[in-house]
Amino acid sequence: MIRCIAVDDEAYASEILATHIRKLPFLELIATTTNAFEALTMVQEGKVDLVFLDIQMPELTGIQFLKICGHKCKVILTTAYPEYALDGFEHNVIDYLLKPISFERFYKAVQKAELLFHPPVPVADAENIALLQMPTAGTDYMFIKGESKNKFIKVSYDDILYIEGLKNYISVFTAEERIITYLTLREMELYLPKSRFYRVHKSYIVAIDKIRMIDGNSIFIKENIIPVGETYREEFFKVIRETK
């Protein structure tokens, strides 16, 4: 069970989050509050695992909250302003939810949190390989190891939106599903066609043709916001300028 609080200076916004939280059996709602200092006290007392945190609040902003609480809890940011996404990712937040927050988007974010708190256990045998075979030139798909020992999922490159790295495993996001497999982001980067996919952050690879918009250092793919890391920024924008 992941202990959660929802923090927003507008009570109705935290109640929407509370409603979403109550729908999921692996989340436990500890409190909702409009007072960031009250939430900070709960975090510092070790009562909270996951905070849904509004980034724009009076007296104590979400970014200030992150700086104070450090690594004592995990955070999912919520706000009506997408331009603040990069600041949040630089503080290692799990995800960034743009208001109004649908349950579908909320569920995607908490799935990431669940993986961090309860990572899947790999099968300890020689058959636990992430790819059935190395993709060859001319193919437009790969087979990725699923959650059971002999399960491999065929994934078309056309269907991939982006890939997120979480420690020693990755999540491959398509429009229909998320596939989790034991592979590093660096290894996955080597397997993907370079003309179609690009590493934009230490934790993200994006499909160039699925980018809906770039605003500053934020990439928008459907309703997801992907940060552009400082290390990758110059080369990424060079690639974008040269894309025809």
Automatic annotation (TrEMBL):
Keywords: DNA-binding, Phosphoprotein
Domain Response regulatory span(s) in chain numbering: 3-114
PROSITE patterns: HTH_LYTTR, RESPONSE_REGULATORY
Modified sites of kind 4-aspartylphosphate: 54
Organism this protein belongs to: Pedobacter steynii
Domain HTH LytTR-type: start-end pairs: 144-215
Gene Ontology MF annotations: DNA binding; phosphorelay response regulator activity
Designated name of the protein: DNA-binding response regulator, LytR/AlgR family
Pfam family, one: Response_reg
UniProt cross-references to SUPFAM superfamilies, sorted A to Z: CheY-like (SSF52172)
